[in-house]
Write a structure and sequence with these properties.
By secondary structure, the chain is an alpha+beta fold. The chain has two domains: 29 residues; 77 residues, N-utilization substance G protein NusG, insert domain (mini-chromosome maintenance (MCM) complex, domain 2), CATH 2.60.320. It is built from two helices and seven strands; from the N terminus they run αβββββαββ. It is elongated. About 4% of the residues have low confidence.
């Protein structure tokens, strides 16, 4: 194998490797994130690549949110009906968890690699 063949092989392997990362979403400009709003104002942005629990102070008291494996959910809330907790995990761009009594909204922003409908 000549020197030129080796260089060509290395370039092709790097190109394949890079393409695989892009198609699997492992390299993403910005990535998906959860945006937390209180009374319509942004109070926090959290990358969905993180794994953590954190608290947000709403109008009725603290809410506990959890980010894990590219998803986010509300674990605890002081609201009476707990609808925001029942909403469970969200992970796709445009999905939201809304706690009206606490005036907190959690929405997903970032890349959208999912399709709602494919038309031929």
């Amino acid at each position: 194998m000549s020197r030129g063949d080796k260089i060509t092989l290395v370039v092709l392997l790097l190109l394949i490797f890079f393409t695989l990362f892009l198609t699997k979403g492992l390299i993403s400009p910005g990535g998906k994130r959860a945006v937390i709003l209180l009374k319509g104002r942004e109070v926090k942005k959290v990358s969905l690549g993180d794994e953590k629990k954190f608290k947000i102070m709403g109008s009725l008291g603290e809410m506990t949110l959890e980010v894990k494996k590219g998803k986010v959910r509300v674990l605890e809330s002081k609201c009476p009906l707990k609808v925001c907790i029942e909403r469970d995990w969200i992970s796709s761009k445009g999905e939201e968890i809304i706690c009206i009594p606490n005036e907190v909204r959690v929405k997903i922003e970032g890349e959208n690699r999912e399709f709602d409908e494919i038309v031929h």
